[in-house]
Amino acid sequence: VQLVDSGGGLVPPGGSLRLSCVASGFTFISYAMRWYRQAPGKEREWVAAIANTGGSTNYADSVKDRFTISRDNAKNTVYLRMNSLKPEDTAVYSCNTRLGARNYWGQGTQVTVSS
After folding, report:
1. At a CB cut-off of 8 Å and minimum separation 6, what does 74 contact?
2. Residue-level pLDDT at 7
3. Residue 29 and residue 12: Cα distance in Å, rounded?
4. From the CA atom positions of the chain, what is the Rg in Å?
5. Count of CB atoms situated within 10 Å of the CB of 57
6. Smallest Cα–Cα separation from 53: which of 25, 22, 74?
7. 112 contacts 105 by C-beta, under 8 angstroms
8. For 19-54, what is each residue's pLDDT tens digit?
9. Which of 41, 43, 47, 55 matches a 20 to 30 Å C-alpha distance to 90?
């Protein structure tokens, strides 16, 4: 199983970014996918989740109405579109899936929101 995150960067407050996570080594369409983030000095925080078919999504209250999770099962890729970014969104973002009892993580991509 491999998850490769990309798309992070430095953006000003109010800006947008789209993160991508390319998956391999498992049957992507069979599993839900999630995004987490970890800010410096803080615990990892769940951000969003999407069902295997993409028909159901859930968001943390802190990002609801600003972030959108989506997936392209033909490309084995999950996305996180982030709009109206705030300085408090600064963190390393990682995608995640769970196969049985085991969690798998991407390597993370840094998002920095600053003027």
Report:
1. none
2. 98
3. 35
4. 13
5. 14
6. 74
7. no
8. 999 999 999 999 999 999 999 999 999 999 999 998
9. 55
User: Tokens in use for 102?
Assistant: 């085991």
**Both structure tokens of 17:** 């970014």
Residue with tokens 């769940």: 46
**What tokens appear for 11 in the block?**
């953006």
Per the CB < 8 A criterion, the answer to whether 19 and 80 are in contact is yes
Tell me how long the chain is. 115
Which residues, 6+ apart, have CB-to-CB distance to 84 below 8 Å? 14, 16, 66
- Unique residue bearing structure tokens 């498992």: 26
Q: Is residue 3 a contact partner of residue 105, using CB atoms and an 8 Å limit?
A: yes
pLDDT tens column, 55-92 = 899 999 999 999 999 999 999 999 999 999 999 999 99
